[in-house]
Amino acid sequence: MYSFLMPLFLLVFTSSSFAAHLRIQVPSDYIPKKGETPVDIGATVFAHVARLVDEKIDLEYMPASHQREWRELRSNPYACLYNKQKTSAREKDAIFSHYPLIAFPSIRLVLRKSITLPDSVSLNEVLQSSNLKIGVVKGRSYGEQLDTIIEANKAAFVWGEGLNSAFNHRERVAKGTLDGVLEYSEVYLDHFANRPESDEVTFHSIEGVNETVFGYIACARSVHGKMAIASFDEAMDKPEYFNYMINMHRVSFPAVEFQFLKDALEAAYQIPAKSNAVPPDTTLHLARRK
């Protein structure tokens, strides 16, 4: 009897230990340093979720470009990504969290001020009627509507590749070697905070694009990925998390934008509004989307 029960005990003990210390790797172009406050809302909120699951999951960050992030997720059963848009193509490779991690205003066509276009534009018409050099990044999703346009007009764009490709595109717009870039207004303005280049561009909404976009946690389609998503979902279902996440949006976006982002998040979570209190020691963070 003893010899039969002992292996059974070891199996249960080993399984429990594995579940309590799931090792997950996070390929990312941002690697947090010990004691460092993340520089954007996506990393900040994900770090909070990580704290809520730290008794179950050990996170290890890996430096990676946007392209490599998804290559790693497809080949690494331990990989999870954060702040990712959910598309039908991506769902073939990843299991997404049930709830969005963050919400943010839709992407804009950012152009040098010398280029005159209406406040709202059709990207298809812009591409067909001009020879503007507009930058996009390989491996990045711009949402299903824009991804379709980009895929159909690949040759019309200037493609960036590598770890700092989005950063480099923004710098090229500032220097005048690119006419524009597809980017979020908050990201562009944050990049050039306290620099005169922030006043040298205009921001144009793009017709046919959803006004609010969600960023999710995405994990590999593996046993480990499924276990990680289950833990993340459990943490994100807690009122404490929702309250923190809403307050982070409050301090990260202008009041007008915050209100419709809050409405969208409350609808996505299917729960009523939470406390309006801003958490202590919270500084302004601007969103960086992927």
Question: Helices, strands, pairings?
Answer:
Elements: H1 2-20, E1 22-28, H2 41-52, E2 57-63, H3 66-75, E3 80-84, E4 94-96, E5 102-105, E6 108-112, E7 120-121, H4 123-129, E8 134-137, H5 144-152, E9 157-160, H6 165-175, E10 180-183, H7 185-191, E11 201-206, E12 212-220, H8 223-236, H9 239-252, H10 255-269
Parallel strand pairs: 1-2, 7-11, 8-9, 8-10
Antiparallel strand pairs: 3-12, 4-12, 5-12, 6-10, 6-11
Task: Give descriptors for this structure.
10 helices, globular, alpha/beta, 4-stranded antiparallel sheet, 41% helix, 21% strand, 290 residues, disordered C terminus, 6-stranded mixed sheet, single chain
Total strands? 12
Given the helix and strand composition, which structural class is it?
alpha/beta
Main sheet attributes: strand count, strand direction, barrel closure: 6 strands, mixed
Secondary-structure element order, as H and E?
HEHEHEEEEEHEHEHEHEEHHH
The strand order across the widest sheet is: 7-11-6-10-8-9
Termini separation: 56 Å
Question: How many whole angstroms does the radius of gyration measure?
Answer: 21 Å
**Spans where pLDDT lies below 50 across 5 or more residues:** 1-19, 273-290
Provide a brief overview of the structure:
The chain is built from ten helices and twelve strands. By secondary structure, the protein is an alpha/beta fold.
